[in-house]
Amino acid sequence: MEKSNKELSGKIALVTGATKGIGKAIADKLASNGATVVVTARKPSEEESIHHFIAADLTDSNAITELTGKIIEKYGTLDILINNVGGTSSPAGGFQMLSDDDWNRDIELNLLASIRLDKAMVPKMIEKNSGVVIHISSLNGKIPLYQSNFSYGVMKSALNAYSKTLANEVAKNGVRVNTVSPGMVKTTAMETFLENYAQTINKTLAEASQQLMDSLGGVPMNRLAEPEEIANMVAFLVSDGASYITGANMLVDGGTFPAV
Amino acid sequence: MDKELIGKVALVTGGTKGIGRTIAERLSEAGAIVIVTARTRPIETHTKHHFIASDLTIANETDKVVSEINEKFGSIDILVNNMGGSTSPSGGFGALTDEHWENDLQLNLQSAVRIDRAILPQMVEKKSGVIIHISSVTGTLPVYQSLGGYAVAKAALNNYSKSLSKEFSQKKGSGWRLSLREW
């Protein structure tokens, strides 16, 4: 391959949950900026991909040990860790719809998966005094939405606190840790979610989408984000241009978050 | 003190020591019937409080406690989710195992979710009730050296409490509200 001097040339990056949506956009962007990108998902994508795919269910702690083993064996190191995996299959409809199982699943997928992976990988970054970790959170972590996303929002708040705490701890070791909180993004996961939500509240897809935007207090840009618009922020945060940014929670939300 | 809580039934979890015990005493002085829970009965018992031994980090203990209270005292008007804490080691991120994280979440978040789930329907039905979640300043100001998992669980609790108040304040009759306290 042609030796290039792109800003991420020579860097090894891992993006979890990266065969679709935001994760895929991040993987593509980091690769186009020169990084070697490893992606995970439970199942491989049906589309062809230029990235190194490793199948892993990150709610399974053994799968994480196996995944990190494979990466270290093949590349010897990891420079960029994007904890993108997350989501929810909990029912909409508020507090009383949520069982212990729903809560446990949301905790595993949105918090513990990142913690386990960080625990395996951050020590390698500390050793070489260099590395960047990103946690993909959600605007829901800052704007609770009981109607649609109760437990998911709670876990994203926990993730925000966790990311900030980790950032403070490892800043002295040359490792930067940041959070990116997207608002509503045009992904298949969002589509599926909206379809289910529309069904639950007995509305059309367009009405459900509008209601979700309204429950956020309105989206000033009046549209959903493209996944690439989230990836652009991540690409900046992992670059040397962001060398003084750690412990930040960057909102990419078309102006949605209402406070100063 | 004004006996402004006469006739009210209050549950204070983790109410035998420290903040919980002080809350229980205060509510009781204001006239409430106060039920406290803890895993073990305190050596020095407060005769004016009703004590139920229970480990509320265990899922099926919750219903047992709530039905015992309903049977003996009627429906609950005031719920103070005070229990919380952490036995996780200090020393930062690397010192915390999966088990520490899970314990911190059970003790500081999921126990409250379960009690609320068991008690809220009574409050909604009579259009009246107050729920307090005792959180911590670490939920907004993380302290990695000593309280990683605890702080993360408290941040989750803050979001949870806010969401719950948004959902149920609109089902209001008079006097329905839900508060979050930090210390």
TrEMBL record, chain A:
Pfam families: adh_short_C2
InterPro entries assigned to the protein according to its UniProt record, in alphabetical order: NAD(P)-bd_dom_sf (IPR036291), SDR (IPR050259), SDR_fam (IPR002347)
Superkingdom per UniProt: Bacteria
Record-annotated membrane-spanning stretches: none
Record-stated family: Belongs to the short-chain dehydrogenases/reductases (SDR) family.
Protein name: SDR family oxidoreductase
